[in-house]
């Protein structure tokens, strides 16, 4: 996605938030092609661009170019000085998380009605890559929150769920996506966490492993099997809030890299949640997981290309 020349371009002088980036008119400064530039993913409120000749995805739109520069500057100035300390402490500085919300980086693709920046998937990927150039731990926090948690609720939550959870996720509450378990990694749909119906909701029992953002999160999307006799077709997505009785963060993993990013074991012991915490429809969780992981994986790829660029730049200095 990025070229070294793009990565080494001098930073811009201001760090405006994404919300203003989405609205601001920009000078055309990236590609001097005669064909208009646009990403392969259209902005939600963009005019119809289907009649235009597509350009390679590496040519960013003006909005994406501005975003790239502002995130790059934010990462270098605000995150850069804290990277080593956060890595040694194996903890994310809470001020950084606050700044991510202030910058609009925690609702990149969400519509403005929920407090989001109303930008597109390419914009999210640009931001994830730019953050990873400076700190892949911060980058993965933003990736999981945007491409997995926000996307799952925006795509599969009903109107009530979107109104309940998305404004929180854009203004101060971090999210986690909880699929993996001790005995189900790649084979995610062999998951053992169970859900049962109660009179007015659901009860969850089981455990999850390697859950990113667990220490910072207030909202957890949890996949559990509501009907094990149906195999993976019983898998259902639920939303669990941090303070729900019976829910606990059991253990934080010690890792070799991205040490400031929390990766934890979660336990669910008779966790009772209301009906309204069902995400989408019962038995559709496996479809939701596959769909959002397709985006999440592109986010992780952007994290890796950003990491590689940052390593190259540091080595060259
Ligand atoms: C830092 C970190 C953060 C994470 N964050 C989250 C998170 O937020 N939420 C979440 O739900 N999970 C998370 N995970 C878990 C992650 O999704 C799993 O690690 C991943 O699904 C792989 O599972 P596994 O580690 O059990 O490896 P395994 O499934 O045991 O795979 C090990 C190796 O075997 C290969 N393999 C597996 N099955 C096959 C097969 N059938 N054929 C051929 N090769 C195969 C794999 O490609 C891999 O190379 C995280 C993991 C890490 C390391």
How many angstroms separate the termini? 22 Å
| Alpha plus pi helix count | 9
Ligands: flavin-adenine dinucleotide
Judging from the principal axes of the Cα atoms, what is the shape?
globular
Could you name the ranges where pLDDT drops below 50 across 5 or more consecutive residues?
Answer: 1-15, 23-43
Provide the residue-averaged pLDDT.
88
The percentage helix is 25-40%
N-to-C series of helices and strands? HHHHHHHHEEEEEEEEH
Strand numbers in spatial order across the main sheet: 1-4-5-8
Structural class by SSE content:
alpha+beta
Query: What is the gyration radius calculated from CA atoms?
Result: 20 Å
User: How many beta-strand elements?
Assistant: 8
Strand content: 15-25%
The main sheet comes to:
4 strands, mixed
What is the assembly state of the chains in this entry? Answer: single chain
In short:
With 317 residues, this protein is of the alpha+beta class.
Describe the structure using short key phrases:
single chain; 317 residues; alpha+beta; 4-stranded mixed β-sheet; globular; binds flavin-adenine dinucleotide
